[in-house]
Amino acid sequence: MVGRIDKIRDGKRAPPESRATRQAYTTPPRADNSLAMPSIGTSTAPPTPQVNGVAPATNGAPGPVATSTTTPSNVPPEIEYTLSRLSGHRNVRGVLVLARQGAIIRYSGVAFEGEQGRKYAAAVKKIVDCCRTNIEEVGDEGDELKFLRMRTKKHELMISPDERYILIVLQDPSQ
């Protein structure tokens, strides 16, 4: 597959940060075959984010530290650990977890604060929906979008959609 982080290029492996980033958000499935993301309840209304007062790692980036938001549900420790590990990489500018409907469940990093976070959430939801629709049209039955990586001059977005959630990692590829 072209673009995989751990792919060997020119006889050399990708930098350790890239492999670590890939490993951080490809957690093994749970023993009970349930999703490893926090439950958002049974309500059909989108969750209302609330500040929980936890400050993520600063990644060595200048600027203010963003607080994380989450729904009032208990977040499993393995999810907290994975999100903090992702946020801790020096080139990661932010991590965003969306409900499948596009509502922001949790974020970290100044890149996803306020209106900017809402813009990223809406854009990524449209991209994922468009890709899924096109895969259904041209792909084999049962084929689905698992991972999407987009790189611009300034940023790189890594998107991992699921049936209930969408994980987005924004990083600075120049570091």
UniProtKB/TrEMBL annotation:
Residues 79-171 form the Roadblock/LAMTOR2 domain. Gene3D superfamilies: Dynein light chain 2a, cytoplasmic (3.30.450.30). InterPro entries: Roadblock/LAMTOR2_dom. Pfam families: Robl_LC7. Residues 1-77 are annotated as: Disordered. Residues 1-20 have a biased composition (Basic and acidic residues). Belongs to the GAMAD family. This is Roadblock/LC7 domain. It comes from Rhizoctonia solani. The lineage of its organism: Eukaryota, Fungi, Dikarya, Basidiomycota, Agaricomycotina.
